[in-house]
Specification:
6-stranded mixed β-sheet; 92 residues; 35% strand; 6 strands; 4 helices; alpha+beta
Length: 92
């Protein structure tokens, strides 16, 4: 885990190596911005706010377009098409 600062806000960022790639996610107090390795259906089942982007680094995640969101993320105002950075700011 590393501290990740974006737009003056503090988050926890995690990079977990796999055999061929890495799982990436940035956690705020209300939700998670994750890479495509994650399944929104799991977040939906447990009622967690999650937005998924396609990116290879934490910085790329901020610029990437949100592809999928859980219902709890929708309640925070997060929608597909916004940037990961926009989504992340709604997760604090």
């Amino acid at each position: 885990m590393e501290k990740f600062i974006y737009d003056g806000l503090e988050f926890e960022a995690y990079r977990i190596p796999t055999i061929k790639t890495a799982l990436l996610f940035i956690k705020g107090s209300k939700g998670i911005l994750g890479c495509r390795y994650f399944d929104v259906a799991t977040a939906e089942r447990i009622g967690e706010a999650m937005a998924i982007v396609a990116a290879g680094s934490f910085d790329d995640m901020l610029r990437a377009e949100v592809l999928r969101v859980s219902p709890a993320a929708t309640e925070l105002g997060i929608e597909p098409g916004m940037t990961g950075g926009e989504a992340l700011k709604r997760m604090v």
